[in-house]
Amino acid sequence: MDFLFLFLKDFVIQLQSPTLGFLIGGMIIAALGSELVIPEAICTLIIFMLLTKIGLTGGIAIRNSNLLDMVLPMIFAIIVGVIIVFIARYTLAKLPKVKTVDAIATGGLFGAVSGSTMAAALTLLETQKIGYEAWAAALYPFMDIPALVTAIVVANIYLNKKKRGTASDATMQESYSKQPVAAGDYPSTRQEYRSQQQDTKDHRVKIWPIIQESLRGPALSAMLLGLALGILTKPESVYESFYNPLFRGLLSILMLVMGMEAWSRLGELRKVAQWYVAYSVVAPFVHGLIAFGLGMIAHYVTGFSLGGVVILAVIAASSSDISGPPTLRAGIPSANPSAYIGASTAIGTPVAIGLCIPFFIGLAQAIGGR
């Protein structure tokens, strides 16, 4: 009962917060056919400002904290990012009318992190005056990059196996139609073997370019820049006078844009299997609960705060809306963007922001005895 009360209280607070209010407002005006357009250049600047601020916060905290305290949460963040991809590979991919490669891409996007969802969680934690390690935001890349890399590698391995299987079937059928050769004379067999070996090398998945592509993405670049500046320099003056005061206002504008985009993506989601809708509602809670459980282990072992556990759970519940889509488009070009982007933006993000954030905050408060 305590948990239900706390969840409902936090849910009401979240409904009244500008974060979710602007998200819902964006969906409503898009549904009404509004022609409001926020220029892409402004959105890019807002994203840069928000994630640079989060990076600076984490960098400053890392500079002033014990690095050993960060090791276990970082390891858990990596594990969760990888697990989420395999959950999609062996659940969503098994459902009717769902293509395996689309399911893997969806898992990669849900395993990657939404900077805007994380920013919304940080804002609500501060509103509720729930303490957390400032460096907890730095867990972002430790979940984001492994998820994207795992998704692209798993998808390419699957596609290569499928391609080789198709080629083997064709070769076998062709061999049946040929006349038998003399004993000991196997020139075509050797040539085919060498060709298959070369084809395997040509299609081998290269992991480092995937990591480079992720690091060059606008979201991670901004966050890692802020992180590095926070660790290596002393940016407290510009942080307090410029980045921190603008944070919530800029976040509200981004939520408005995301709401409008979420509504537009609903049309794309109707074109693919309806199982994506069910997955997009259930998966954020499942992913978040896995991360919450691992976070509680870190809480009891290293003293990781309950607020930090919430952040770990929320970034696991989130799905990438900035860096993930272009990375997956390039890494898994055969996957259908209407499936994985529609599932993420139209349903996954509103569920993560509107339901998962108050859910995990309420769960942490119930455990903490508040």
UniProtKB/TrEMBL annotation:
Region (Disordered): 179-198
InterPro entries: Sbt_1
Keyword set, alphabetical order: Membrane, Transmembrane, Transmembrane helix
Compositional bias ranges of the Polar residues kind: 188-198
TM helices/strands, residue ranges: 20-38, 45-64, 70-92, 104-125, 137-159, 245-263, 275-294, 300-318, 339-367
PANTHER family assigned to the protein according to its UniProt record, in alphabetical order: SLR1512 PROTEIN
Protein name: Sodium-dependent bicarbonate transport family permease
Species per Swiss-Prot/TrEMBL record: Pseudocalidococcus azoricus BACA0444
